[in-house]
Each structure stands twice: as C-alpha cells, then as structure tokens.
Amino acid sequence: MAISINIPFTEEEICKLKVGDKVLISGTIYTARDAAHKRLIELLDRNKDLPIEIKNQIIYYVGPTPAKPDKIIGSAGPTTSYRMDSYTPKLLDMGLKGMIGKGLRSKEVVESIVKNKAIYFGAIGGAAALISKCIKKSEIIAYEDLGSEAIRKLQVENFPAIVVIDSLGNNLYEYGQEEYLKYTKMV
After folding, report:
1. Which ranges carry the Fe-S hydro-lyase tartrate dehydratase beta-type catalytic domain (predicted)?
2. Residue pLDDT, tens place only, 114-164
C-alpha cells in the first residue's frame, strides 16, 4: 500500500519513510536539471537569493517535453540523478528535503542525505506519459532561456514514487541487490 505525503513536509515525516516504501506525493514540487542546478549554486556562491524556496521542498529532476494542445505538460519522466550530485549537498544544507530522479547517487550525496535528514525518491523512467497525468499545474518560474530545463513549479496529485535512499542512508539499490543474491542462492 502506498503512503500519501503532502509537500512541503517535515523532518519527522521524512524520518518515518523507509527504503522501499511506495509513496504518492501531492502538493508543490519544483523541477530542475543540471543547467539550473549550476545557476542555483552560482547564486549561493555569490550570497544571492534563490528564485525558489527550497526549505522542506522536493526537486524533481525532469526536463518535460512541450505540452500538446489542451495539456498541462508533456511527458515528464525522471532524469538520471548523478548529473546533479556535485550540486546536491549544498542544496540539502540549505534545507532541501527531497529529490526525485532515477539511478544511483554518489557517496557524498548519501552522506548529505543522512546529515540533513532528507530523502531520495525514484520515479519510473518508462512511465513519463503516465507521470505527467499526476501534474495538475505547471508554471515556469526561473531560467526560461533553458527551455525544457527551466525551473518549473508543479502542482502534483498522487505522484507515484518509491523511497530509494531513506534518511538513514539505506539504499534500495544495495538492498535490492542483496535480496536478489540471497534469492538466487536459495534457488
């Protein structure tokens, strides 16, 4: 059974989520990929304000396709997360509490997730058209010149994801591999 969560969310709510939990996310989340992350970090390095409030928020690593007529957004599947790894610890230190993407994260990101009591969710890359149906509103709020990589504010309802790295650093990619190996030894 999936756990419903609303964003923004608290550290207490994050700490209740465990690796492998299926979640349905509702509320406001932001999109950003590597080009936008680079600009965010440059702002922080110059002691400037960010164009978004990241405290207790989630960033979804996505560059959606253009919306078709009468649609809110095009396909919106996750981007490979390691591309944001060099930027992520600084954003987590600023209060970011969650990320949605696909794939492995670096040791530094996992350590920062634990330090900041944050969480990393995985979304299904092949389900981009289905995921877009969970997006009820989309608004570009920064870096429009980046096209699909602009920062968007999304209103989502029952966005499906899975806890890949929980606030204790438990990692589904490692756990899943261990479980698979145990299973193959039994067979």
Report:
1. 3-174
2. 999 999 999 987 777 778 889 999 999 999 999 999 999 999 999 999 999
DSSP string, 20-68: T-EEEEEEEEEE--HHHHHHHHHHHHTTPPPSS--TT-EEE-B-PPPPP
- Could you report the per-residue pLDDT of 60-109, keeping only the tens digit for each? 999 998 888 888 998 898 999 999 999 999 999 999 999 999 999 999 99
Q: State which residues form the domain around 19.
A: 3-186
36 close to 7: Cβ distance less than 8 angstroms: no
Closest CA relative to residue 149, chosen from 72, 37, 58: 37
Of 70, 28, 55, 44, nearest to 117 by C-alpha is: 55
Told to judge if 50 belongs to the known catalytic residues of this protein, a careful annotator would answer no
Nearest to 21 by CA among 4, 35, 39: 4
CATH number of the domain bearing residue 29: 3.20.130.10
Which of 37, 39, 97, 152 is the catalytic position? Answer: 37
Confidence category of residue 178, pLDDT binned at 50, 70, 90 = low
Number of domains in the chain: 1
